[in-house]
Amino acid sequence: MDLGISQRTALVFGGSRGMGRACARQLALEGVQVVIAARTEATLRQSAAELSAETGAALRFVVADITTEAGRDAALAACPSPDILVNNADGRPPGDFRDWTTADWHAALDAMMLGPIEMIRRTVDPMIERGFGRIVNIVSRSVKTPQAELGLSNGARSGLVGFVAGLARQTVRHNVTINNILPGVFATDAQRHHVEGLVKAGGPSFDVLWEERGRNNPAGRFGRAEEVGALCAYVCSAQAGYITGQSLLIDGGAYPGTF
């Protein structure tokens, strides 16, 4: 299928690794002009070079932290009028809410709610004026299946999803859609850091917990980042203009509900 987005422009946060990189890769394969943004220049430079070689597209990169105004300014200076915006940021480490400070909550909100909302605020009206826009937030299954140890992510990501639910119904008549992708357990660095946070003295080892998490999924395995990238590209396609305000699970069937 021709997704109809060749020569569109995309700004992908967290695009240097994991799911963000997979989204950038798939968009580039579809002919989109992609700028990847993240905080670490060395990783960005390497990923941009590798993805450019693989896809045949000239991916650009910008050092930009979505949690700061300066970072958001830098991202938009590098990609001033994106047709496609992918918001993606690392979650916070697992823990006990009794130990989290106000600063911990603010950091979570800046990364997983307020930063993405600011990027939406600064890009959505130009998309409306051009008559095309696709905004995709990479969030987490935790907004549907909350885990106690991930309370920071449960709260902040749910806030973003709740905000999007209202705005997405206002923009779709202008061919601007806003959707959320909810990944389950994927074989990424973020998942490895999460499992490391679950390892306790005297408890199961990292290798045991890792193997269990993949085996216990109904699919019998971890997801692959490329699967998120493929879903993201379709949601960004010209054909997906009737899909908006949705939270799309991609979790191997782990969510147990009918709805």
How is the secondary structure organized here?
Blueprint: E1 9-13, H1 18-29, E2 33-38, H2 41-55, E3 60-63, H3 69-78, E4 84-88, H4 102-130, E5 133-138, H5 151-171, E6 176-183, H6 189-198, H7 206-215, H8 225-235, E7 247-250
Parallel strand pairs: 1-2, 1-4, 2-3, 4-5, 5-6, 6-7
Protein traits:
single chain, Rossmann fold, 15% strand, alpha/beta, seven-stranded parallel β-sheet, 259 residues
Characterize the structure shown.
This protein has 259 residues and is α/β, with parallel strands linked by helices. It has one domain (9-185, 224-250): 3-Layer(aba) Sandwich (Rossmann fold), CATH 3.40.50. It is built from eight helices and seven strands, in the order βαβαβαβαβαβαααβ. It has a seven-stranded parallel beta sheet with strand order 3-2-1-4-5-6-7, sandwiched between helices. α1 (18-29) runs parallel beside α2, α1 packs across α8 (225-235) and α4 packs parallel to α5. The mean pLDDT is 94.
| Second-tier CATH architecture | 3-Layer(aba) Sandwich
Mean pLDDT: 94
> Alpha-carbon distance between the termini?
29 Å
Shape: globular
N-to-C order of helices and strands = EHEHEHEHEHEHHHE
Provide the β-strand percentage band: 5-15%
At the first level of CATH, the class is: Alpha Beta
Query: Could you state the CATH homologous superfamily?
Result: NAD(P)-binding Rossmann-like Domain
The beta-strand count equals: 7
Tally the structural domains. 1
List the total number of helices.
8
Overall structural class, as computed from helix and strand content, comes to alpha/beta
Q: What is the rounded Rg?
A: 18 Å
Low-confidence stretches: none
**Widest sheet, order of strands:** 3-2-1-4-5-6-7
**Mind describing the biggest β-sheet?**
7 strands, parallel
Estimated helix fraction = 40-55%
- CATH topology grouping: Rossmann fold
